[in-house]
Amino acid sequence: MRKSDKALLPRPPLVQCIESRALAFQGWPANTFVERLWTQRYNVSGHYAAHYDWSAAGRDARRASSFMVYLRGEGEGCEGGGTEFPMLEGKTEGGWCAFVDCGRGREEGVAFRPRKGAAVFWLNFDEEGRGVKETVHAGLPVTKGVKVGLNIWSWWQRGLEVADLREL
Predict the structure, then answer these.
(1) Which residue from 24, 49, 78, 153 could staple onto 35, CB 3.0 to 4.6 Å apart?
(2) Which helix (H) or strand (E) holds 20?
(3) How many helices (H) and strands (E) are present in the chain, helices listed first?
(4) Are 47 and 138 in contact (CB under 8 A)?
(5) Single pTM value for the model
(6) Rounded distance, CA 121 to CA 32, Å?
(7) Rounded to a whole number, what is the largest CA-CA distance in the chain?
(8) Where in the sequence is the domain holding 96, given as residue range(s)?
(9) Which long-range contacts (C-beta less than 8 Å, at least 24 apart) are formed by 159-163?
(10) In the chain, at which residue ranges do the beta strands (DSSP E only) sit?
(11) Residue 153 forms beta bridges with which residues?
């Protein structure tokens, strides 16, 4: 399913700042916190098969959203390794080709290019708590070099209080 190395990050002030910025980007939603951050390294042939980021810990807690942040990729000797969403329609005009693979020759789906400093964000559940099927995605194989990514996952938990976040 996955061919990569991964590491859980410690939480010094810089990482806590990244977590806060991720929540701010989302408008500081109530009852939401950021899971500990993970990095992953994909060497040549590294990939991640199609999957969802849906995750739930019962009816009252779920992984609400995802960020895929590219820390190393295109422009640094990396080729391939895009993040593909086969059920989403991609844009191929204007400046989009700097961020998505416009030369794929497929009529369906979109693959985001792993550009250092870029990120992809999506919601995993709809307003009624159902997983969004269109968020199925895959890490395409790296064909040259190394891709490094950072996962930022936000969790919604019913009744979570701000004071509870100090313990995470």
Answers:
(1) 153
(2) helix 13-25
(3) 2, 13
(4) yes
(5) 0.88
(6) 16
(7) 50
(8) 2-165
(9) 159/31, 159/60, 160/31, 160/32, 160/33
(10) 2-3, 5-8, 32-34, 38-42, 47-51, 61-72, 79-80, 83-85, 110-112, 119-123, 137-139, 142-144, 147-157
(11) 66
pLDDT higher than 90, residue 168 = no
Q: What tokens were used for 53?
A: 């980021």
Cα–Cα separations (whole angstroms), residue 128 to 121, 132, 160: 20, 10, 19
Percent of the chain with pLDDT over 70: 93
Question: Could you read off the pLDDT of 21-67 as tens digits, one per residue?
Answer: 999 999 999 899 999 999 999 999 999 999 999 887 877 889 999 99
What's the CATH number where 76 sits? 2.60.120.620
Name the DSSP letter for residue 56. Answer: B
Task: Report the domain count for the chain.
Answer: 1
